[in-house]
Amino acid sequence: MIVKKDLSLKENNIHGDFLLPIMKYHCIVPEHFALLPLHWHEEMEFTLIQEGTALYHINLESYEVKAGDLIIITPFVLHDIHQQTTSSMTSDTFVFNLSMLNLKTPDACSIKYLSPIFEEQYTFPYIIHPESPSYPRLLALFHQLNSFYTKQKEGFELGIKATLFEFFAVLFSHGLAQKNYNVTLNSSHSEKLKLVLDYISQNLNKPLSIKELANICQFSDYYFMNFFKKYTGMTCVQYINIQRLELAADYLRTKNLPIMDIALEVGFDNISYFNKLFKSKYHATPKEYRAACKALHS
């Protein structure tokens, strides 16, 4: 099922720039976060788990990943990351836009491979384990991509693009690309979930009820609550609170509004409840968090 029409749900982060739309992210769980909430974006991800373990939810399925695993997430696929109990995880991820590979140029590469990927006509294994026949080459390409990106010697942009083209060549030549002919039950559920997440993201400053969210999916309240928790790993209220707290943290970093006004603007009408949840998530009060952010940039 094509979901590009829901672009307002797209993650707002800008990965790289228009000249070179690729960005590397070094992630440590739980130091950077214990939970990366469910989201999707139009970029593709290529990840190497460097150390430890974590739980990924990708396209509404659960995957336990461990050191050495490679992860491939195509555009528009729902995904999140959870800490595994008390374990930690370190990973490096490249997020890149297929447009950097001349997606709109009507040549064989675009027509046969890249455009169909963007149109969700191909699926790939989300997790490539070390025992996979394609793993050695894909791992070498990850390190090659990392070298070009990190060292940035003359011509590194060409090296990055060449490596990504080879990355796709390996995926197809090793038979990892599968035609996505049928709309599955999961894709129908995925579409409904994206509509709900989109609605939540656009209405965080308003009261949100289970009934109105359930109506978006045409589910009963009871079925919707079970559906949401099954596919996100948390209750709907927990998810909404996390989104509101992250927006509040962004406002505390970037706006000079009073804390009470920020709490109201992101949907909390009880300042004590807001302070309690914020401290639980960020291990600091909103006032302490704002002061720490200012100190970092002073």
Automatic annotation (TrEMBL):
Gene Ontology molecular functions: DNA-binding transcription factor activity; sequence-specific DNA binding
Domain HTH araC/xylS-type: 194-292
SUPFAM superfamilies named in the record: Homeodomain-like, Regulatory protein AraC
Gene3D superfamilies: Homeodomain-like, Jelly Rolls
SMART domains found in the cross-reference section: HTH_ARAC
Organism: Cellulosilyticum lentocellum (strain ATCC 49066 / DSM 5427 / NCIMB 11756 / RHM5) (Clostridium lentocellum)
Alphabetized UniProt keyword annotations: DNA-binding, Transcription, Transcription regulation
InterPro entries in UniProt: AraC-bd, Homeodomain-like_sf, HTH-like, HTH_AraC, RmlC-like_jellyroll, Tscrpt_reg_AraC-type_HTH
Name the record gives this protein: Transcriptional regulator, AraC family
